[in-house]
Task: inverse folding
């Protein structure tokens, strides 16, 4: 699902998206992966294309996505010198004493729901793929 121009709280597909972590981050893409437990697989990815501003930890739990406030959008706009196409705001627990506010601004956002395996197995199904860091035994 392409979510260009997001200024409202993003809507996640149905599922138990409690456990989150950054699985990729370079100049072209920031990927946040989620599931109820990230040990063996994840089933949801928020793919931010051309991330411009990122304020979030590498892993967190139980985020609550919300509409970014006008002050948050202004903060990011002033820092970047232009208003980004996508601004996502959320509160989450990153292991501290309580939830903290986070922001991500990017040129685009794609929400992808599919099973991404985090370990090698021979019987991978057609609706599954391996995470980029997974290699077959012996490689």
Result:
């Amino acid at each position: 699902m392409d979510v260009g121009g997001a200024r409202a709280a993003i809507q996640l597909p149905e599922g138990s998206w409690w456990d989150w972590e950054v699985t990729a981050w370079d100049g072209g893409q920031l990927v946040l992966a989620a599931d109820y437990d990230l040990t063996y697989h994840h089933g949801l990815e928020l793919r931010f294309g051309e991330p411009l501003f990122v304020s979030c930890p590498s892993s967190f739990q139980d985020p609550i996505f919300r509409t970014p406030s006008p002050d948050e959008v202004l903060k990011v706009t002033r820092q970047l010198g232009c208003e980004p196409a996508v601004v996502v705001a959320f509160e989450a627990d990153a292991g501290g004493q309580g939830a903290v506010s986070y922001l991500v601004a990017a040129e685009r956002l794609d929400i992808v729901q599919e099973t991404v395996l985090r370990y090698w197995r021979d019987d991978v199904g057609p609706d599954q793929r391996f995470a980029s860091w997974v290699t077959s035994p012996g490689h």
About this structure: The CA atoms of residues 9 and 106 lie 15 Å apart. DSSP finds one helix and seven strands in the chain. The mean pLDDT is 88. Strands lie at 19-25, 29-35, 41-55, 59-66, 86-93, 100-117, 128-130.
